[in-house]
Amino acid sequence: MSKVSKKSLIATAMVGALALAGSNIAAADALTDLQKAEAKIFKQSAKSQAKINSIYEQTQDLLAEYRNTVDEADVLRGYNDHVQRMVDDQKANVVSLQRQIDSIDEFKQGVVPLMYKMIDTLETFIKLDVPMNIDRRNARVANLRAVMDDSNVTTSEQFRLVLEAYEIEAGYGTIFDAYQGEIDLGGRTLTADFVHMGRIAFVAQSLDAKHSWLWNNDTRAWEELGDEYLKPVTDAIRMARKQLPMDLTKLPVFAAGAK
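User: That's the sequence. What structure does it adopt?
Assistant: Structure tokens below.
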């Protein structure tokens, strides 16, 4: 090979090397571009994933809120049904109460006149009865009449008081009692001790225990007793006051129908 040829080969080799180097540089630039494109795509993908995650979280929150709303609606629906049943029951009670009020008004129309008749009857009975505790009994009748005129007292309370007065009057027939009061001896009044055994015997004794009297309900007057009754009457008064133990004693009585 000539020297010229060797030079030409060397030049050719150098050209090839340069061509190869240029090829490598071009490949490197393409790789860089590819990497940049991949990085950009990855970055955009990350942003998209972040958006997807955010949308998913919002969706979960909205779903939970929806479920809570549905649950609350069910609770409210159940509560509303409960309230409606209560309202219906109250309406029924109102209707029932109105019927009762109407019946009470009808009852008042019948019972009020009856109470007045009962009070009149009670007053007449006391006037004809043995007059033990007469002042207290007359005061009770006067109080009943005042109660009947008091608008602040209910009809039921008025009726209760009238019945209570009748019960008290009935009790006088079984009470053994002694008390102190004024005795009217036909124009002469003095303080005396009174004792009664139900309605069987009603006697009085002066405070000095020197005089005793028996009530005669037929003549509506007091009749003086003999001295033989002074001690029995004194003992009866003391037994009624629990100052002596209960024992037999002798008290005068008027036989039924006796004149």
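The longest helix spans residues 3-128.
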